[in-house]
Specification:
Two copies of one chain form a homodimer. Chain A is α+β, with helices and mostly antiparallel strands. In chain A, strand 5 and strand 6 form a beta hairpin. Chain A contains five helices and twelve strands. Chain A is globular. Chains A and B meet through helix 3, helix 4 and helix 5 of A and helix 3, helix 4 and helix 5 of B.
Chain lengths: 245, 245
């Protein structure tokens, strides 16, 4: 399994991904699921990935091979808009499906993937997309401030309660880590290290990245602090049911 | 969809269920999913149900028809142990599957169900079971203090952080309602009114039941209080990441 989140804010964007993969419960590995393509000062893209690992790796490799081929339907460094960039990710996904899909189907292997794409091209807007397995995609707009992929449910309530468009990058990063903590507590197939990236709007280059191991002091402080804060919050909520039993 | 939870505590048991059913998004109805069979002073059983409504209603009706037939493999009022009672629920489920399953399969209708059973028979222990679609079941023991059925993920983190065997019936009820609030915020196919039942260990009869409509003052106080408490908890957690970006 996998858990990834991308959060679009006035100040910029926060992306986070876990790094656990498993092919059966006795074959657990660590693979990075966050990838950056950037030309500092001109364009910045970050992808986080969920699904079949050979498929997601294939897409990332293909996007790398297509760089600088100057075909605007393939080259993230040549494309003129974020809409076009999302199409390129979809195209790459369709290409790998076309190449490998039939064979995998013969072996009855689940062969699907999804991606969150964030990015900005000079003179354009910062945008956040969710690319589905069919290569189609949607964009975050209006009240939709985040996308999740993979094991999305355990970590959703805290995002819904905290994240708004004007949440700070710092608070959104903290909220993302709490969301991961709730998910990792409930699903052992989501696990550290966690990759987190912060992009400041209009920077046109990666702002900050960190890989948080399980024993990272900040991750541990959030985990312990959140456990205690939730218990306090629980006891602070008025319990005046008036019921007798 | 459905959400139900059963929590086993030193003091007793708390069960809660939503009441929304839907056959497609344009056919949404309200049905009770909590059912009590009791002989006050001698035995008490409570079932909460998830899955295909014709199947769960069939099981509940069959359990009602079997009452007082004095067959210990069918009659909840004759069975000698909670283990036997869980078997009876499984038997009823298998019976309905046998009667209707083939026809439903012909129509490609998803025909599955699960149940949480709590109960106590005089001179026996209070026990909590999760009965699966195949009619087999597991019992809550050791560190396992609760079972959920239906849409289980959104509401699980708060249960994991709060519920222990020595949690009070009052706190467990509050926690169950917070768990429902998180679920109902994220999945519109889980909805009020909520049914909640509190059984005090060794009482051998229902202790307290309530049906909470959406506008119920206690449910509203918990919903509003929890939203505010979570935001406060979020801001209380140390944010000393030391990151610069």
């Amino acid at each position: 399994m996998t858990y990834c989140v991308g959060i679009l804010l006035d100040e910029g964007v926060v992306l986070a991904s876990d790094s656990r993969t498993n092919a059966g419960i006795d074959r657990v590995s660590t693979f990075r699921k966050m990838f950056v393509f950037e030309k500092p000062g001109e364009r910045f893209f970050c992808l986080v990935t969920a699904g079949n690992l050979s498929l997601t790796q294939g897409v990332i490799s293909l996007l790398g091979e297509w760089l600088n081929n100057e075909n605007p339907e393939q080259d993230l460094f040549a494309v003129g808009s974020m809409f076009g960039a999302a199409r390129i990710v979809g195209n790459a996904l369709r290409e790998i499906h076309k190449t490998d899909g039939g064979y995998l189907q013969q072996h009855e292997v689940d062969f699907s993937a999804s991606f969150i794409l964030a990015g900005q091209i000079k003179d354009g807007q910062l945008r956040l997309y969710l690319v589905y397995d069919a290569g189609n995609f949607i964009e975050a707009m209006g009240v939709t401030t985040y996308f999740q992929i993979g094991e999305v449910k355990y970590g959703k309530p805290i995002l819904d309660r905290v994240i708004q468009r004007d949440t700070s990058l710092s608070d959104a990063s903290k909220c993302a880590l709490i969301s991961f903590d709730s998910t990792m507590r409930s699903n052992v197939s989501v696990g550290p290290p966690l990759d987190l990236l912060i992009y400041r709007r209009n920077a046109l280059k990666t702002g900050f990245t960190v890989r948080l191991e399980d024993h990272d002091p900040y991750l541990k402080a959030i985990r312990d602090g959140w456990g205690a804060a939730i218990l306090k919050a629980f006891h602070d909520v008025s319990a005046g049911s008036g019921w007798t039993f």
